UniProtKB/TrEMBL annotation:
Catalyzes the transfer of endogenously produced octanoic acid from octanoyl-acyl-carrier-protein onto the lipoyl domain of GcvH, an intermediate carrier during protein lipoylation. It comes from the Bacteria. This is Octanoyltransferase LipM. The record marks K165 as: Lowers pKa of active site Cys. The gene is lipM.
Length: 278
């Protein structure tokens, strides 16, 4: 039986606004049946703090620290909490809600899409598993997180190694299409990450940062020798193909498509109205 062919795009390092605009335009083009489902890999230039669609900037984010660390800043079209995109491989998956392999519920769609991430970690030799809340307290923590930091706790079907979160994802559904994107962290700078958020007191920050070490982990903390971005990209290129059971058709945007992405980036994702409106 022939496998379905999806587009695969490796965008390299792009600006924060361009990254979010490209994910949105891929969603639009797939909704319009102009392109098949897509998996995209990308990075960030500069390193960037992205926040979830519903986050309140002035209540949760220390914008002075974002500026002092020379970081980009952008609001995602997806939910979730703040993510420092630095030494990581970022992925996005764009696929129709009515695709035969996609369950109707958000949680179960996470599971299917995240199978590609799971297989990617296994290609790196890491024994990752899906996170599933074991107690009522853990379920409640997912509904009302105590922290604005994404990697502070795993959600349903995110990836964990030895109980610690190793990849974070967020999802939205628009125009009949699922957009899921997320971070696969090679190395993590905890001090820089925790600088970027507001806390009731320094004591609260210290307590949260101390607890964070037991909740999150980066790939190079788990490997006997550091892995390169190229090795990670190759592992997850294979992993998504295995997990989604698809073949790849490499794709590069046309000049016209690239111009549409740049227009959306400028009009929406570079605007204060979008990024700071909450």
């Amino acid at each position: 039986m022939n496998k379905e062919t999806w587009y695969f795009i490796d965008s390299g390092n792009c600006s924060p606004a361009y990254n979010m605009a490209m994910d949105e335009m891929l969603l639009q083009w797939h909704s319009d049946h102009q392109i098949p489902p897509v998996v995209r890999f990308y990075g960030w230039n500069p390193a960037t703090l992205s926040i979830g669609y519903f986050q309140k900037v002035h209540k949760e984010i220390d914008l002075t620290a974002v500026e002092s660390h020379n970081l980009g800043f952008v609001r995602r079209p997806t939910g979730g909490r703040g993510v420092l995109h630095d030494k990581e491989l970022t992925y996005s998956v764009i696929v129709s809600e009515d695709h035969p392999q996609m369950p109707a519920t958000v949680t179960e769609a996470y599971r299917v899409i995240s199978e590609g991430i799971l297989q990617g970690f296994r290609h790196l030799g890491l024994n990752a598993d899906f996170s599933v809340p074991r107690t009522k307290d853990e379920e409640n923590e997912l509904k009302k997180p105590r922290s604005a930091v994404c990697f502070d706790a795993p959600s349903w079907y995110e990836l964990v190694v030895e109980g610690r979160k190793i990849a974070g994802s967020a999802q939205t559904r628009q125009k009949g299409v699922i957009l899921q994107h997320g971070s696969i962290i090679l190395d993590m700078e905890e001090d820089k990450l925790f600088d970027l958020f507001q806390y009731p007191s320094e004591r609260v920050r210290e307590r949260m940062q101390k607890g964070f070490k037991n909740k999150a982990v980066a790939i190079n903390e788990l490997t006997s020798s550091p892995v390169s971005m190229r090795e990670v990209s190759e592992a997850f290129h294979k992993g998504f193909a295995d997990g989604l059971d698809v073949d790849w058709q490499p794709y590069t945007l046309t000049e016209e498509e690239d111009q549409l992405v740049r227009q959306l980036a400028q009009q929406k994702y570079e605007s204060d109205e979008w990024n700071y409106r909450r």
